[in-house]
Amino acid sequence: MKIKFILLMFALTVWTLMHGQSMRHEQSETYIGPTDPLVKEKLEQWRDLKFGIIFHWGLYSVPGIVESWQLTSEDWITPDTTRTYDEYKQWYWGLIDSFNPTDFDPEQWARVSRQAGAKYMVFTSKHHDGFCLFDSKATDFTITHSAFAGNPKEDALRWVFDAFRNEGLMIGCYFSKPDWHSPLYWWPAKATPTRHHNYNSEQYPERWAAYQDYVYEQSKELMHNYGPIDIFWLDGGWCDEPREDIRLDRIVEMAREAQPGLIVVNRACPGPYEDYQTPEQQIPDHQITTPWESCITLTHDWGWVPNPVYKSANEIIAKLAECTAKGGSLLLGVGPTPTGIIDEENCRRLAEIGAWLDANGEAIYGTTITDIYTNEDQSVWFTASKDGSTLYAIVSNPSVGTISWQGNAPRRGSKIRNLATGKALKYTVTDSTTTVTLPSSSTPIALKIVNS
Ligand code: GLC
What we know:
Layout: H1 2-20, H2 37-49, E1 51-55, H3 85-94, H4 106-115, E2 120-126, H5 156-166, E3 170-176, H6 205-225, E4 231-235, H7 248-258, E5 263-266, E6 293-297, H8 313-325, E7 329-334, H9 344-360, E8 380-384, E9 390-395, E10 402-406, E11 415-418, E12 427-430, E13 433-437, E14 445-450
Bound molecules: alpha-D-glucopyranose.
């Protein structure tokens, strides 16, 4: 009964979460982009990768509830009415004593990700709840003080990053600028009505300055103690308003000294530190020529939940093709279990995506955009080789039999091949409409058009 109730609450929370957050899905008119040549270079490398996986893992994984958000008292959050708000917070903070991922296997995460075809990863070093998945000396609210303390892998972040580096993926460090556990952000002497810090920083400048130092110290630990990092993925966009200024300039300067070329993603905060845009759970409506990535979950949730609702591998492949055709990347959200592994069902879907990319990756990785990037009903997504000699058409619904598009017609005498099998396919071009007869397939089909 209780479980059912938690599940219901949780579904409602997710729904409200999706509707409560606003993100930009259009090209930012104020996109600035990095000026540092090393950052520019890394950003170009990153743009070729196209597919990454983001892992949300923390205290919320233990009961399998929405990540952090139920700690806030905002109107769009469905509260746990079985206890008072204060009791709820105490219960949540107390999860540290049950966080004990005894099967923690970051090598499995990394292997599964590489086999899925992911070329970069992002991992939650600290979500909004403030729980550190690394050995921060700036707080006791860390995995090294959880029930997992004393385990050889207690400094989990190190093991995660090492495992993914060994598999050759680019390393992204998610870090929440707001911290609801820190008394310097949510002062326990006062109520916490919203996600924002709960006191007037002009009235208590020393408290706010101490928070700025706390964020700086933790960023310093992350940037100095955990080996090479490629992306600093900063979440909590509201923590950028003048009244919540965390002195990001100081943090980024330190971070790039320690990690030359570091990409900084100050999410949803247009300005000098949003090296790329990050629309969330949605793909922009149109092609965008400046760098971006859509983060989209494999289930409905960022973290692990019991009995999740999955998207199919084909859906994810179609989204990846769409992101690529529109000039962006896909960052797929996966939640490791409370015991520390990627469970079987997630693995199965990731393996299906990987099998498709093994055969069709040429149409995705390292490609560029084309002016005509889709057909009328948006069932075909076009990409092109950087030298422009080859056009790829990814047909997202494999069961249609024949497919047509306008423009992007192959030159007379050119072949259209099934990329996965190399087999030439029958096609006609009438006026500017190309119609291709497709083989039967249970997955999206990538067509390769080499103009002769
Ligand atoms: C949103 C959510 C946050 C989640 C993130 C992942 O910002 O608030 O909980 O971690 O999206 O993209």
